[in-house]
Amino acid sequence: MEYILSYFVIYAFFGWILEVVFQQLTTGRFVNRGMLAGPYCPIYGIGVSLLIIITKKFDQNFLMLFIVSSFICSLLEYVSGFLLEKIFHERWWDYSDEPFNLHGYICLRFSIAWGLAGAIVIKEIHPFIESFVYWLPYKFLIIILIVLLIGMFIDFIVTVNHILGLNKKVDELILIQNNMRKISDDMGMRISNHAAKASSKVHDILDNPEFKEHLEKVHERLNYTQRRLLKAYPNLKGTRSKLQNEILKQLRKKNKDK
Hints:
The chain is mainly alpha-helical. Helix content is 76%, strand content 3%.
């Protein structure tokens, strides 16, 4: 078990490097793409660890490794995206514009990429990683493993707390917007329909100076982790309402401008 956990930590780190390099190549700038603050992406560690366990039961030819890797990694990505959306009411990535996607959580292009990457890792890279892990003194390995896993767990708890805090700030803006809309609607009841229609054309709550002021104040209260997540996930979407999604867009835009 301790060796599987070691592989989890190592490949979580490699996954983070892969994400950073991919962002550097596609955007030309450094972005910490991990959901957690540290240099690791646990989903990669989980994925490769599962492949290590499962592929031991299969013939180690490249085609079989590709098929198994593609299926396992796609399933893991789908389940992760689904759970994140249900828990946080936000979609952290979306492949809806990609051909042959499934509910926007996975798509054929990336499933093929995961299959190839997984097969290469198991066939070519993991034998060296396995040798390195077994080469380390056992007590040293356990101590390092305990320290790293505790650090990752604390990071996870802190990050989840910050995500929930971000959602509360968005809810705060939604409440302000609803109150402003109620006041606007009440005023509309007291004036002519013609004037109310004219007002509705020029008085969009999201463009209202008062609402923008509240938005600015909420943005200023965002902590480092919340700002980092808005930067790391430019396609982050709110799934509860269009308003939630629009507020996230505006917070992300302000985050990008500063």
